[in-house]
Amino acid sequence: xxxxxxxxxxxxxxxxxxxxxxxxxxxxxxxxxxxxxxxxxxxxxxxxxxxxxxxxxxxxxxxxxxxxxxxxxxxxxxxxxxxxxxxxxxxxxxxxxxxxxxxxxxxxxxxxxxxxxxxxx
Length: 121
Known about the structure:
Number of strands: 5
Shape: globular
Number of helices: 4
CATH architecture: 2-Layer Sandwich
């Protein structure tokens, strides 16, 4: 079973997922990402606090989202994954598609930090 809820926080789309993202229901997750994102958004936050399983289809949806967001100079922020969910991202190399945060508040706070610019002389 999968529950997906979305919320707008200014120019950020927050997507809370609960349950399992598998081959039977990943379309609902992807639809929420596609329909909720608006041009001009700075980021999409995927709150995984209540996610218990993510299959390859869910990972593919996250990858699609990250690639799409890059076209709009926006970020994918993933927050509150259980250790076994985070491990799936790491084992597949997909932990690099977005930034991971301990909480949704941490993810939101990161958007208000100035970007660090490294200068080379």
